[in-house]
């Protein structure tokens, strides 16, 4: 059963460089432990021990474990979105954006091995956080697709539905070939994904002739027997 989402609390922003470093250490420690042990088994004491700070210091920056988990998920999403935006900034058309975006996502997932496990847990820890993670990606995706449609680079269709289709494709390809296989054959994966985006599933749309249908033979009328 999902935990109810906690009301958004104002984040404590440290005023000193030392405070900023301490808060960052807590976030990085929490990210590591939520990825390694899971939310249920990672305690606040574990987080402060990993961050090498006193237990009471945790509560200077975060009211509870759920709050730091939500911030870890939000920050993972923000880091990935920022990296994606930088990587596709010089792409000349939408197909180039899609290929470079997929490549960048695969590289990020390869480096941030905890990404999938932490985001999956968010569905059960804080549903609003889980939805927000994907909705923020979708908003940027929809805007980019609308611009591509206006430029004649993408067929006109529902941009939000298309955004979630493309996000789902990247998510599952990353899980299969980065998380499970350790980056095996990614160029082939990229080539196949881009062929799908460029030509679709229908072989006829890619210019291939439709297979000929075999004509069913008509049964011969039985010969009449002569007496």
Automatic annotation (TrEMBL):
Name recorded for this polypeptide: Transcriptional regulator, TetR family
Domain HTH tetR-type: 20-80
Domain of life the protein comes from: Bacteria
Keywords: DNA-binding
Keyword Signal found: no
GO terms of molecular function: DNA-binding transcription factor activity; transcription cis-regulatory region binding
Keyword presence, DNA-binding: yes
Compositional bias of kind Basic residues: 214-227
Region of interest: Disordered: 206-227
Residue spans binding DNA: 43-62
Gene3D superfamilies for this protein: Tetracycline Repressor, domain 2
């Amino acid at each position: 059963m999902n935990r109810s989402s906690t009301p958004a609390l104002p984040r404590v922003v440290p005023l000193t460089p030392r405070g900023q470093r301490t808060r960052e250490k807590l976030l990085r420690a929490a990210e590591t432990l939520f990825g390694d042990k899971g939310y249920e088994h990672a305690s606040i004491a574990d987080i402060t021990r990993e961050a090498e700070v006193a237990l009471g210091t945790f509560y200077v920056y975060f009211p509870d474990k759920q709050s730091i988990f939500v911030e870890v998920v939000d920050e993972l999403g923000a880091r990935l979105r920022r990296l994606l935006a930088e990587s596709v900034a010089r792409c000349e058309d939408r197909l180039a954006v899609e290929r470079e975006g997929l490549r960048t996502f695969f590289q990020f997932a390869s480096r941030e091995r905890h990404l999938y496990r932490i985001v999956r847990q968010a569905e059960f820890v804080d549903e609003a956080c889980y939805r927000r993670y994907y909705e923020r990606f979708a908003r940027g995706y929809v805007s980019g697709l609308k611009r591509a449609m206006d430029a004649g680079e993408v067929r006109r269709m529902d941009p939000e539905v298309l955004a979630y289709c493309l996000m789902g494709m990247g998510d599952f390809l990353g899980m299969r070939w980065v998380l499970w296989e350790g980056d095996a054959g990614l160029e082939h994966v990229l080539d196949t994904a881009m062929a799908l985006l460029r030509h679709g599933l229908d072989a006829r749309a890619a210019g291939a002739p439709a297979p000929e249908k075999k004509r069913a033979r008509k049964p011969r009328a039985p010969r009449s027997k002569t007496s």
